[in-house]
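Lab notes, practical 5.
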Amino acid sequence: MHDIVDHDWPSVRTHIVEGLYGQLEAIPVELPDLATVVAQHPSGAVTTKLAWEALMPEDFERLVFNLLTSTPSYENVTWDMRTNAPDRGRDIAAYRVTEDPLSGIQRRRVAVQCKHWLSKSVGPNDIASEVASIKLWDNPPVDVLIIGTSGRFTMDAVSWIEKHNSKREHPAIEQWPESHLESLLAQRPNLVAEFNLRPE
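Output from the prediction step:
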């Protein structure tokens, strides 16, 4: 094995290395000492696939609600509608606060539509329906519509959103697919634990 590694016999090495490790085994990493890594104080979250199937639709809405209420840049977060109610395009409402040293504080009204879909992707018709519903809201108007899903968006839905946003039409639309939510939750392990989202 040392000869194969040291002399790099390409015709043999690949097959031997493939046979050394199973599909679920950790990949070996060249690292002199873990103490060296720890001493560098690495930062950042590591995203992992979460057990979305552990949630009911109401749990998913509560998770998103808790995510917003635990984020300082969101104010007056409300979750007024019952799950699956005819809610005119929103499950959660809030104000997103941004501060600029020159222009001061700005508050934008945000509506969040939660879709706990495990086997279906969000399509363009779903997006169009949400945008039409959001326009039925009373004043003040919604500035940003967030569509959060435990699934994904179809390519046509992504194209629909990009065209809509490029025209600067209201509301602006943000996509929060499972990968985005997993990235956000990687920085909030308390919510992952609270909702039992860690895969077994």
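Observations recorded by the TA: The longest helix spans residues 57-69. The mean pLDDT is 84.
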